[in-house]
Input
Amino acid sequence: MPTQLPTITDTTVVVSDLETRYLTGGPEDGAPVVFFHDGAWGGSADVTWGDILPLAADAGFRVIAPDFLGYGGSAKSVRVDVSPFAFRIRHTFSLLDSLGITGPVHFVGNSFGGSLALRALTDPADRDRIASVTSINGTGGPYKAPDMAKMGAFDGTEEALSTILDLLGDDTANRSAHLEARLSWAKQPGHFITMLAPHTQVPDLIKVDRPEDPYPHNLSDVTVPVLLVHGTEDTLYEPVWPDKLAEVIPGAEVARLPHGHSPNITHPRETWDILGEFLARATGAAN
Output
């Protein structure tokens, strides 16, 4: 199951009593960069970032790419009393603590992972631990386009997952290998249930309304560098999303790639050129 990547190590540890798989590489004294994978069926660190992690490690960054709780090789555990971002952010910081990484780190995420990285900035208590945030086609929640509704249509078959890959824009020569890897993670015991659990309908008699979500306006006082990478061929979000967020987040940069939802999968070198340049500048600003 684990993917063998050049210069990248595959490890599973217990964090907060939960098995946590992560990929890591690069020099231990390099600037730490945490890569968050997408939230589609069968998501994991290797299927989302497999071709970029070695590039980041070879560029001198210390890379850490965890499998979210509920995904990949991590425990199939999920909390439904808080947002899908909150408990995974807490778990990420617990993983970093276990690795002795207590200083500011750079967050890079694609899709749900990008949304999580942005949402981490909404808690002022966490901002001292975040050096920068990059989101590739992850909005933090709003600006969904109609095609997003099609992402949940998975019945366990390769055909259904292949349709989902079409929405991610995975149309390159390694598509078959990517589909096989994602399907193998999607079949892991517990993954299907943890994916569906947050969407379980609650009887009206015991339904509790959640407080109004202030996002993205609670990013208006962010001071760390933020990069919003927009795949201009992405059909899962409205094209205006990066510009709308940039109006709120002070100093946010917008970069555009002529690709779909996951250019990190389909065009890794081109994507890394943008990420690497931004991280180099953000690292310099943090020093």
Residues 268-286 form the longest helix (19 residues). The first strand starts at residue 8 and ends at 15. The chain has a mean pLDDT of 94.
